[in-house]
Amino acid sequence: MHPAFSVVFFTTATGAGYGLLALLGVLAGQGFIPPDFWLGLTGMGLALGLISAGLLSSAGHLGRPERAWRAFSQWRSSWLSREGIASVATFVPAGLFGIGWVVLGRTSGWVAVAGLLAAIGAVATVCTTGMIYASLKPIAQWHSRFTLPAYLIFATMTGSVLLNALLQGFGVGSAAVLACALLATFAGWGWKLVTWRYNDRLEIPTTANTATGLAGGTVRSIEWPHTEENYLLKEMGFRIARKHSAKLRQFTQVLAFALPALLLLAAFALPWPYAAASSMLAAIAQLAGMLVERWLFFAEAKHTVTLYYGR
Question: What backbone phi and psi angles, to 5 degrees, belong to 206?
Fold first, then answer.
């Protein structure tokens, strides 16, 4: 039993992609990033590539991927449906922004407007993704005030570190972008520590008695409700040993936060191209660390349905 890697990859890739897209849309549209052809092609290609790869991986998680289009019809009640609509809608201004930048060689005028709309769409999509998990009351670790801000903070963090690596790689690095990437990394680190502290102290009031509505004794499960495992047990009832969880948390802190922060600090003092190499290593390390962080996000969550299985 293990959390689905497709969903882990989806949340990591789309978060970084939308974060980078939002920053490109705002900064390039306002003239802070030069309208260079190769810079635009690489930046937009990386952002849209990460988003597309993440969305495709999430479709692969479905039992019947060919029916994925039906999810778009449930936008009145489903955050998953709203996420799908927002993600598709964001491609329209993002595509126009990319055409204006790469093909026409400009980031002002209507191209700047398209970039701003793409940034708004990116933020909206990240919010809907976060709300998919924050709205799930049966999972106490997700249904908290920490989940939605975490998605926004991590998207900003990974997006800014990617943007810094991109600018450094093209020799147009900015001290302001580098500083923002470093501060965002520290913000993400702090938010993750606070979230872990909250979840470790979380007391879930639901028991087998309250779940079944029975009183007058201790309710226990004699046998499982069915003979085979289902997806809830595989992905929402995963049991990870405390010692393994602690090691993976340390690994996450080093790879997703500490190492990138040190490499970004080094980029301040190093000349180009060493600053570019340090920035790129920071981005690679952080994305790898965020894959572990997202895996823990799913592995440490517990669905209350597991009460019916004697857990």
Answer: -75, 135
